[in-house]
Amino acid sequence: DLTEKLGDVFRRLRGYGRLSEKDVRAAMREIRIALLEADVNYRVVKDFIDSVQSEAVGERVTKSVSPGYQVIKIVHDELVSLLGGEGERIGFAASPPTVIMLVGLQGCGKTTLAAKLAHRLKKAGKRPLLVACDTRRPAAREQLAIVADQVPAPVFFGDGTDAVEVAASAVKGAREQGRDLLILDTGGRLHIDDELMDELARMKDAVHPTEICLVADGMTGQDAVQVAKEFDDRLGIDGVILTKLDGDARGGAALSIRAVTGRPIKFVGVGEKVGDLEEFIPERMASRILG
Amino acid sequence: LRGRARIDDDLFEELGEILISADVGVAASERILDRVKSRVRSNGVDDPGEIPRLLQEEIEEILEAASRRLTAPEKRPPGERPRWERPEAGEGADEVPVTEASMAAKEGTGGPRVMMVVGVNGTGKTTTIGKLAKRYVDEGQRVLVAACDTYRAAAAEQLQIWADRAGVEMVGSHSGADPASVAYDALSSTVARGGDVLLIDTAGRLHTRTPLMEELRKMKRVLARLHPGAPHDTLLVLDATTGQNGLSQCRLFHEALDLTGIVLAKLDGTARGGIVIAAAEELGIPVRYVGTGETIADIAEFDPRSFAAALFS
Ligand SMILES: Nc1nc2c(ncn2[C@@H]2O[C@H](COP(=O)(O)OP(=O)(O)OP(=O)(O)O)[C@@H](O)[C@H]2O)c(=O)[nH]1
Ligand SMILES: Nc1nc2c(ncn2[C@@H]2O[C@H](COP(=O)(O)OP(=O)(O)OP(=O)(O)O)[C@@H](O)[C@H]2O)c(=O)[nH]1
Ligand SMILES: [Mg+2]
Ligand SMILES: [Mg+2]
User: Contact A253/A240 with Cβ under 8 angstroms?
Assistant: First the structure.
């Protein structure tokens, strides 16, 4: 437990004087281990420790809390401010329809999320249409049809196997049908797959999405930085949604992705049902990462 | 690492970063580097260029040891039974070696080899079963697959497509059916049709959900009752992009089900899947296969040497 470990480090400090550089360094070793065990990328951890260390040294040791707790508070507050603004909403288009494009690696939860977003935004008064832009995965259409039905929300399937075509036709038809919100579910792909990343770039050009959301598995490890950077560099991300945080993953990928893209995390997925979507709350994520 | 003049703390710190960046984890990396340091001392190594090779060998040995552990059943403490097992079941369970070569030699066991595929959501279980089915078919085995994910949207439809691609029969039921009953029916059908291998697809589930883990334990008991020794394999599919939570997954799935191996999927990305090193070292679970893409041919038997080498390339 981090509080206990820092307690050991600081047990010699008895509530007077200032936090010495030596003591802070020792504390930062423990913080570094905690962040790495939480899956924060090791380079992001380095930068983070450097900035927090300089802030903690020289802090007056207050009588009311232990020095260990004081350091944790500095670290926690810094994490919260880095993780960013609370509950950044999905930005709606000035003139409808709003088009949300979901992208990410294989199996991170995009299709399930499409239904969750439809459910949430429908409750907020929108008329969502789901678009089946995954034309490759076995039974992808069937899967989307079933989860869409749980909302319920209509699905546009298009005919043909060209994902960009499907997206373009859907957006074109949306206005005529009075749908003010389109959620594009794309097929999972690797950030290093040039052909498939290019497909997304072409889809972006064809439909001008209001929001491109990177969907990332909450248990992602050190690789989160590579993935997020590639998607942001090649495509441009507006927001991030982390999934599968209903387990015991510490979720350090949140900090990695935020640090490398600067984009806000908007929601977290917390289960397999259509209602299992929560707003992203930095305080909660910070505590979770610190363990 | 090339410009290193001597063996010092900086060198080991840099090696530590390589391991951490590969998702080996802090604790396992420290233990592994400590062992390398003591080998350096005891062998009197003084050339820093030797250290990466020593580290690679250490990792290789950890991975090899895990596969050896499972092929030597006498290493298991006497009288220890897997937690899922009931007293009357599975006397033959321990004696089935877990190499691919043994698949062809199933005569020793009599009846089909049953392989259960488990793991958290979205790791690649269903796709892996399609690939394994094709692989065993190509080896001349008669293979069936069981659609025991009766929960997730279009799970059976997805598996059916893979079964068709592999040229194998799928046994399923309706959505919402009890997974253990479907497994039971699938095994009966496999035995009736003289099948050599039955691959069982299960629904993704978080290891922290006890009732869902119990559902898998029940499936094992049901299979063992019908055919003592089944399931001969319980494979955990791990996503190579997963971080330290992968170790938690290994621990809890292993505790509940006694895993016989890991399939490390999505190794065609940039993640290196170092968590399997921690799993081998702490739990002795071997990696059996790696998934390297989304087509039916994208699976290979795990090779500790090339895996260890890839960490440093
Ligand atoms: N526990 C949990 N499971 C989730 C969550 N989100 C999605 N899942 C599950 O994760 C698995 C994969 O979800 P999908 O929606 O198919 O993922 P995907 O990104 O569309 O996958 P591809 O299209 O193959 O890339 C399914 O079993 C989902 O039920 C979540 O927040 N928590
Ligand atoms: N690149 C790559 N993708 C893979 C690999 N294995 C599986 N996938 C993809 O990962 C996604 C999820 O695969 P599934 O087989 O549905 O995973 P699952 O574990 O059965 O998922 P649930 O049943 O929902 O828990 C699909 O898009 C697959 O094509 C692999 O080795 N490499
Ligand atoms: Mg999908
Ligand atoms: Mg599946």
Answer: no
Mean pLDDT of the region A94-104: 94
Cβ–Cβ gap A109/B208 under 8 Å: no
Q: In B272-286, which positions are buried (b, 16+ CB within 10 angstroms) versus exposed (e)?
A: bbbbbbbbbbbbbbb
Which residue from A126, A124, A186, A193 is spatially nearest to A153, judged by alpha carbons? Answer: A126
Residue at token pair 């070793």: A29
**Angle B50-B55-B59 (CA atoms, 0-180°, nearest 5)?**
150
Instruction: Search chain B and give the residue with CA nearest A110.
Output: B122
Q: Report whether B134 contacts B107 (CB < 8 A).
A: no
- The mean per-residue pLDDT over the stretch A11-36 comes to 79
CB contact under 8 A, B271 and A222: yes
Q: Would the pLDDT of B252 be above 80?
A: yes
pLDDT value for B95: 36
CA–CA separation, B122 and B116 (whole Å): 16
CA torsion angle A28 A32 A35 A37 (round to 10) = -140
CA distances (Å), origin B264, targets A180, A243, A261: 42, 20, 28
pLDDT band for B302, please (50, 70, 90 cuts).
Answer: very high
- Site to probe by mutation for ligand 2, drawn from B125, B126, B127, B200 as the one with most ligand atoms within 8 Å of Cβ, is B127
Distance of alpha carbon B23 from alpha carbon A156, whole angstroms: 40
Q: Which helix (H) or strand (E) holds B163?
A: helix B155-166
Q: Which two tokens stand for residue B152?
A: 């997730």
**Smallest CA–CA separation between B153 and chain A, in Å?**
5
The pLDDT assigned to A176 comes to 81
Q: Report residue A120 as tokens.
A: 């949430």
Two tokens, residue A15 = 């509530």
Q: Do A138 and B161 touch (CB under 8 A)?
A: yes
| pLDDT tens digits, one per residue of B5-45 | 788 888 999 999 999 999 999 999 999 999 999 999 998 88
Per-residue tokens: B304: 């500790």
Q: What is the pLDDT of residue B223?
A: 97
Tell me the sheet residues that pair with B113.
B197
Q: Which chain A residues have a beta carbon less than 8 Å from that of B153? A: 142-143, 146-147
Cβ of residue B138 closer than 8 Å to a chain A Cβ: no
Which among A36, A217, A224 has the least Cβ separation from residue B26?
A36
Nearest-angstrom CA–CA distance, A236 and A256: 17
| Nearest residue of chain B to residue A253 (CA atoms) | B243
Ligand 1: residue whose CA is nearest its atom 6: A109
Give contacts of B124 with chain A, Cβ < 8 Å.
Answer: 106-107
Residue with CA closest to ligand 1 atom 14: A109
**Of A149, A162, A87, A151, nearest in space to A116 by CA:** A151
| Ligand number, closest to the Cα atom of B290 | 2
Tokens of B78: 């006497």
Q: Do A223 and B161 touch (CB under 8 A)?
A: no
Amino acid, single-letter form, for residue A118: A
Q: In the structure encoding, which two tokens stand for residue B24, read together? A: 């080996």
Residue A164 CA to ligand 1 center (angstroms) comes to 23
